[in-house]
Sequence to fold (287 residues):
Amino acid sequence: MAKGPVSQKRRNEREKAALTTDRSARRRSGQVQSLARAISLLNALTDEDYGLSLSDLAQKVGLAPSTTHRLLTTLQEERFVRFDLERNVWLVGVQAFVVGNAFVRSRDLIAMSRPHMRNLMEDSSETVNLAVEDQGEAIYLGQVECRQMMRAIAKPGGRVALHCSGVGKALLSGLPDTEVTRIVQRRGLGRFTEKTIDTPAKLRQALSLARQQGYAFDDEENAIGLRCVASVIYDEYGHPLAGISLSGPTARLTDERVPVLGAMIVKAAADITTALGGAKPDFASHS
Fold:
């Protein structure tokens, strides 16, 4: 006979627990929604150098002005946004810079590039290299070797001239012409094969083409029998951070295949640039 009241008590406890859990879930869901909306406001302001009014910002993110103002006020308290009283617009705040700068300090070029390099090797079946500019030369930081019997080897720490290598010309293509001229005057244009670019005029032409195509091409300019396509990884200021390349023998990197591999290397460089928080520059300002 005592079983009925006890069972009813347990049912009441379970219903109460379920109600509490449901309320907690709704509260968490509301918090997540508010967080997502706040992030959308920050993203919208990131694209606007001169700020946005409350109504324009609300319209851009698709929120009611009252909701937008409430979220902005919270973000303002934490200094993620700021309000310009003279122009009545909202702008990104200093705390957003602090958080972003922490990412810049903690990012690891090699570690963040490695997954993209492996994928690129698998898709292309060619060796992938990563290099940076150092004292007017390209220095290799890493390589993902392909499985082909004939393949290019570039040991980490190895150096190559900028003007006659894929990664080198890619890095040069991301620099202003004045900086390219300075490097050429200091390092010269040494001749390594009959195809090596050995005049400033030819180099300017090659870099102009690289900027148009998005990738540089080494056609046996550093070593006979070896071809390479390369593109640039940019930092947050639009400066060349590194070069990434696909290299292999001329027998596999045929004229017909070069544009295909070029498109692949451009995408990989763009993906790594995005992952690192970088941005491609406006080449109109490079002259």
Summary: The chain has nine helices and eight strands. Strands lie at 81-84, 89-92, 127-134, 137-144, 159-161, 216-219, 226-234, 240-249. The CA atoms of residues 16 and 34 lie 27 Å apart.
